[in-house]
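Lab notebook, bench 4. Continuing the backlog of folding jobs that were queued last week. Each job is logged with the same field layout so the records can be merged later without manual cleanup. Today's entry covers NAD(P)H nitroreductase, a 324-residue chain. Filled in by technician R.K.

JOB TYPE: sequence-to-structure
TARGET: NAD(P)H nitroreductase
LENGTH: 324
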Amino acid sequence: MSIRTASDAVQAALEAARWAPSVHNTQPWSFAVSGDEIGLRADTERRLRVGDPAGRELLISCGAALFNLRTAIRRAGFEPVVRVLPDPDRPSLLALVRPGGETEPDEQTRVLAGEIERRRTHRSGFTTLPVPDRLVQALVRTAEEEGAGLLALAPPAVVAVAALTEAAQIAQSEDRGRHLEVVRWARPPGSSRRDGVPAGAYPHDEPRTEPAFAQRDYAWRHEWGSPADQAGSTSPGVVMVLTTAADTREDWLKAGQALQRVLLRASAYGVSAAFHTQVLEMEHLRAFLREELCDGAYPQMIMRLGITFDDAETVRRPVSDLLR
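JOB STATUS: finished
OUTPUT FIELD FOLLOWS
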């Protein structure tokens, strides 16, 4: 049954927003509520100062939270009214969102909303069960509905992107500042922190896929982490690149909204995603990817989609910690 008060819709939206994916689960957002209007703000204290100096990944993360806000409000029975980057004098204010006129949520909205808390990020190989071509095509259309592109890579391009990812990971592992920034967001077993990547959510050893996709070394110098692969989980899955036509702050927010819409639809069919952002954090490699594989579009996310029976652990901060 739909929620029928705007105040309840706002509370439902805040609860949904906190489940958005974010780089290293940094959860780089905060919210301010005035009446029935939610202000989505970038929490710049959580920006990766070495790996994400321009804040591109931060805004993509916040874009995913914005999509959850929109979806939860529509699921509650109201049309979301959104203003993106409403005040140039307040660059950290990314969007204002409020419930508008009453509406009956359609089936797609109900399905996507139902996946918000169930969706999980995967960080290893997938089973050999195939992702249906029809679903891949549907996900491409899903990204287009949010004004983004989604490119499914052919096998030769998959090999190239895997090699670029490996090269970027090696270079970043040799950069002490970058490496320590990643390790900062790895959580040891038993940690009470509600952000970062829990020990059960990343592999201790490199996943065995062909071609191999380098994973972040969250377990650096520790015995933390889960086994790299469950039995039979050695497929890289379907490798896709999310793109935008331009590369502005508005485009980064658009990319985040498209990403989350794709992830939720995939999750509804039992398909999970693994992310690889190392290449995109090195501008010369990102430029190469743009020109050689993305036909001039700006790559915003590299991800592998596949089927896994591993229910990864996740943590989120409570809404009370997010309100400003």
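OBSERVATION: Residues 6-119 form a domain with the NADH Oxidase fold (CATH 3.40.109.10).
SIGNED: R.K.
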